[in-house]
Amino acid sequence: MMSHYLFPPPPTVLQLRLQQRRTREQLADQGIMPPLKSPAAFHEQRKSLERSKTGDYLKHKIRSRPEKSELVNMRILQEPAAEGPAHDSQTKLKRARLADNLNERIALRPGPLELVEKNIIPVHSTVKEAAMKGIGAKHSFFYTTSSSSSICVLFSSTNI
């Protein structure tokens, strides 16, 4: 009997998952299953030893945590006495100043054309000449490859 399909039907999700499943050897190498040649009790003992090592390591890290006073000195935590409505408004004001400063710096950062002019963005010389002359439509894409990576630069008519 002749098949109605030119190509075989696509594999089901189950078939794809079974193809991608790790082998028993890979699972044993990763410590998920016990090795084929060693008894399961040995594997369980090894796993419990690893868990206890991890637990000991975490207990050591918790014991060596810095005190709150050290964190305040390193300016990671704020002083507990500095809480209240006055402190909240001061914190909001400080954050607003930082946001304004960041927005100002973002507004003043150089555009792509300036970066090409200063040779910060590596482009081919013909692309650089075209960018300097302002040739192109409203948006022109220039694609070039440098020795280290490929770079795609967008120049809009507002930047040229």
UniProtKB/TrEMBL annotation:
GO CC terms of this entry: nucleus
Keyword annotations: Actin-binding, Nucleus, Repeat
Molecular function GO labels: actin binding; protein phosphatase inhibitor activity; transcription coactivator activity
Major place of residence: nucleus
Residues in the signal sequence: none
Domain of life assignment: Eukaryota
An annotated GO BP: smooth muscle cell differentiation
RPEL repeat ranges, renumbered to this chain: 12-37, 56-81, 100-125
One matching Pfam family: RPEL
Subcellular compartments: Nucleus
UniProt similarity note: Belongs to the phosphatase and actin regulator family.
Subunit structure: Binds PPP1CA and actin.
Name of the molecule in the record: Phosphatase and actin regulator
